[in-house]
Specification:
CATH architecture of the largest domain: 3-Layer(bba) Sandwich
Bound molecules: iron/sulfur cluster
CATH superfamily of the largest domain: FAD/NAD(P)-binding domain
Largest sheet: 5 strands, parallel
Number of strands: 17
Strand order of the largest sheet: 3-2-1-4-17
Strand content: 15-25%
Radius of gyration: 23 Å
Shape: globular
Number of helices: 15
Distance between the termini: 25 Å
Length: 438
């Protein structure tokens, strides 16, 4: 069985970004680790979707057992390196640290996790071996965080795995979609390779379900099948002029500069439509790429934005402007976009009469959500799809024996750490299913 590794070009547009949370050195990590109270019944553990034993890994840093610290992290979350960079810790573990109640700065759990896992990668420490071969094989559709977490855990349990991925790069949104000031694509590729180093995970890239094989065929080929295909393309406004040059889906554009190149040298006014986390990443990324005027156009008001408040605060500091209560209705330009015709909305999101105006824009990114791919699975008898999401039980089982789903395909799109947790649970549910068949 082959194990395919993945590589990306070094001259990507994203490389101009600097990390906004610089890593700890050994001394800084030791000082921060020694501040931790190693709480019993620690609230930070409960706030972590993968239940990492946070006080234990921090205590191991304090006692200079970095290898053991990283092991504690990876045992719970094999994507611990990327999660240390991309988790919204402010609303998860760090947000629940007891120091918040004492008016003291909370422990910087993400930065400590990054310290341990970075040292582990740098020293090429490995912790896991594939389990004894069970003779069972599992097909996984997708190669993003949920797929990788499921695959790694299945290998530890001794089951063979094949990943079917549409793209040529693997790692999913961790590779193609994370804001580069949090994590660049090469770090995601390092993680992919580290995970694949367990061996026995075959990766078929450029593989499209429906074209190269149907889900029914994959289901028949494998002893179990996991649907971890993530989300679909950017949603569209279906407004006049949306096909003009210079109008992109935000996820599509972010992928372009994460794994390739974009030229923003001639862009004077960029507008990002939306108010969620992708929109906030996009405005900050455009500013970071050097676009002078970047405006967030959102139909609601500032307090109603679904994106994280701390990200928006950072965007404002970086010079992003906002047009709240603004609804695009058409894109204008001759061949290339030059402006967005908009109306203003009141607090109840009703159009204000006579409010039509044009926002100048020579680059527009639509960050109004992504389509759900769950319908792909609706052809499988027994699999239930609601609002585009595959319906699963707590272990990721669908209504069809042997078919599971994890990550965005089932949860509709959320943080990487949830994909890691769901993937691991699905692997154990599949193992129990195989044992039940024996
Ligand atoms: Fe340490 Fe804060 Fe977790 Fe307590 S809640 S164990 S102080 S990180």
């Amino acid at each position: 069985m082959t194990t395919k590794r993945t590589d990306i070009t070094p001259d990507r547009s994203e490389t101009v970004f600097e990390e906004f949370k610089p890593p700890y050195n050994k001394m800084q990590a030791a000082v921060e680790a020694n501040r931790c109270l190693y709480c019993e019944d620690a609230p930070c553990i409960k706030a972590c979707p993968t239940s990492i034993d946070i006080p234990t890994f921090i205590r191991k840093i304090a006692t200079d057992n970095v290898k053991g610290s990283a092991k504690t992290i990876f045992e719970s979350n094999v994507l611990g390196m990327s999660c240390a960079r991309v988790c919204p810790v402010e609303v998860l573990c760090v947000g629940d640290c007891v120091f918040n109640e004492m008016d003291q700065p909370p422990i910087q759990i993400g930065k400590l996790q990054r310290y341990s896992t970075d040292v582990a990668y740098e020293k090429e420490w490995t912790y896991f071996e594939a389990g004894e071969d069970t003779g069972k094989n599992v097909g996984i559709v997708g190669a993003g965080p949920a797929a990788l977490a499921t695959a790694h855990e299945l290998r530890r349990l001794g089951h063979a795995v094949t990943l079917y991925e549409k793209r040529e790069v693997i790692g999913g949104l961790n590779t193609t979609g994370i804001a580069p000031y949090k994590m660049k694509a090469d770090a995601s590729v390092d993680e992919v390779n580290w995970i694949l180093s367990i061996g026995g995970i075959e990766v078929k890239t450029g593989f499209e379900v429906g074209k190269d094989a149907t889900l029914e065929e994959l289901d028949a080929k494998h002893d179990a099948l996991v649907l971890a295909f993530g989300l679909g393309p950017d949603s569209s406004l279906s407004a006049v002029g949306e096909d003009l040059e210079g109008v992109y889906g935000a996820v599509e554009y972010i992928e372009l500069f994460k794994v390739g190149q974009v030229d923003v040298s001639g862009v004077k006014n960029a507008v990002v439509v939306g108010g969620g986390n992708t929109a906030l990443d996009a405005v900050r990324e455009l500013r970071g790429l050097g676009v002078e005027s970047v405006t967030l156009a959102y139909r609601g008001r500032e307090p109603g934005m679904s994106g994280y408040a701390h990200e928006w605060k950072a965007g404002k500091v970086e010079g992003v402007r906002a047009a709240f209560g603004t609804q695009p209705i058409a894109f204008e330009g001759a061949g290339k976009v030059e402006g967005i015709k908009c109306v203003r909305l009141d607090e109840k999101k009703k159009t204000i009469e006579g409010s039509e105006h044009v926002l100048p824009a020579d680059l527009v990114l639509l960050a109004i959500g992504q389509g759900k791919l769950g319908e792909l699975a609706a052809s499988l008898p027994g699999v239930v799809v609601e609002k585009g999401c595959v319906q699963v039980d707590a272990g990721g089982a669908t209504g069809r024996p042997g078919v599971y789903a994890a990550g965005d395909a089932a949860n509709g799109g959320t943080e990487v750490v949830y994909a890691a947790a769901e993937g691991k649970k699905a692997a154990h549910a599949i193992d129990a299913y195989f044992k039940g068949q024996a």
